[in-house]
Specification:
The complex is a heterodimer of chains A (115) and B (113). Chain A is mostly beta strands and 115 residues long. Chain A is built from no helices and 11 strands. In chain A, strands 2, 4, 5, 6, 9, 10 and 11 form a 7-stranded mixed β-sheet that branches. A 4-stranded antiparallel β-sheet of chain A has the order 1-3-8-7, with no helix packed on it. With 113 residues, chain B is mainly β. Helices cover 0% and strands 56% of the residues of chain B. In chain B, strand 7 and strand 8 (62-65) form a beta hairpin. The radius of gyration of chain B is 14 Å and the shape is globular. Classes of the chains: A mainly beta (115), B mainly beta (113). Chains A and B meet through strand 4, strand 5 and strand 9 of A and strand 5, strand 6, strand 10 and strand 11 of B.
Chain lengths: 115, 113
């Protein structure tokens, strides 16, 4: 089954304790991206990656890091989480091929609470 | 810059009512337009899409037409069901060198039996 898998689905942590949210896709997609969803703000892009070792900032990258060492994985790293990073996070992927219409496939989301 | 504006919710309708959720966009060039739906506790999934002016996307009874003259992509359904209760996101995608997606803020729909 084609899917995007995120872990953990739920996490409560404390300020400053480094954490990683993993994302893996099994569709051989070139493009992967992270979003955060906040009430009244919709989805905002954090980082995206067009291919292995190619990453770029989205609209709200501050406080986050990413890496793309393998095509299927795109982890989101919070080096020193703060309460304003409490949010619902989504990973998404797409073929990224030229001419493709760009449908995004989303994971089920990771709800993060930073105390 | 590119942006998407959609009507604020929540929208509450009775079953079998007609649904319209407005979406307008600003973008240079010719973006692709999408409606995504998010059911409770789930990620977003594609509902429909249109890639050029006057295209009509349709799926599960929902429709939206890409109107370049009014820069709009309104979502409609003739008869909603309780199972349509969800949050609906309008989005555009610009593929100019790198993919850039812009999402609206989402509209929550609640359908009452």
């Amino acid at each position: 089954e084609a899917q995007v898998t995120q872990n953990p689905r739920y996490l409560i942590t404390v300020t400053g304790k480094k954490l990683t949210v993993t994302c893996s896709q099994n569709m051989n997609h070139e493009y992967m991206s992270w979003y955060r969803q906040d009430p009244g703000l919709g989805l905002r892009q954090i980082y995206y990656s067009m291919n292995v070792e190619v990453t770029d900032k989205g609209d709200v990258p501050e406080g986050y890091k990413v890496s793309r060492k393998e095509k299927r994985n795109f982890p989101l790293i919070l080096e020193s989480p703060s309460p304003n990073q409490t949010s619902l996070y989504f990973c998404a992927s797409s073929t990224g091929l030229a001419g493709d219409t760009g449908e995004l496939f989303f994971g089920e989301g990771s709800r993060l609470t930073v105390l | 810059g590119n942006s998407v504006t959609q009507m604020e919710g929540p929208v509450t309708l009775s079953e079998e009512a007609f649904l319209t959720i407005n979406c307008t966009y600003t973008a240079t060039g010719y973006p692709s337009l999408f409606w995504y739906v998010q059911y409770p506790g789930e990620g977003l999934q594609l509902l429909l899409k249109a890639t050029k002016a006057d295209d009509k996307g349709s799926n599960k009874g929902f429709e939206a037409t890409y109107r370049k003259e009014t820069t709009s992509f309104h979502l409609e359904k003739g008869s909603v069901q309780v199972s349509d209760s969800a949050v609906y996101f309008c989005a555009l995608m610009r593929a100019t060198g790198t993919y850039k997606y812009i999402f609206g803020t989402g509209t929550r729909l609640k359908v009452l039996a």
